[in-house]
Amino acid sequence: MPKSLSIVIPAFNESERIAPGLAKILTYIRERKIDGELIVVDDGSSDDTAEVARNVASEYSDIETNVIRYEQNRGKGYAVKTGLLAARADIALFSDADLSTPIDEADKLLTPIANDEMDVTFGSRAIDRSLIGTHQPWRREQGGKVMNFVIRKMSGLDFADTQCGFKAFNMKKFRPLLDVMTVDRFGFDVEFLFVAKYHGLRLAEIPVRWNDVAGSKVSVFRDTRRMFSELAQVRRNAKNGLYDLK
Ligand SMILES: Nc1nc2c(ncn2[C@@H]2O[C@H](COP(=O)(O)OP(=O)(O)O)[C@@H](O)[C@H]2O)c(=O)[nH]1
Ligand SMILES: [Mg+2]
Question: Which long-range contacts (CB under 8 A, 24 or more apart) does 239-242 make?
Answer without folding.
Answer: 242/180, 242/182
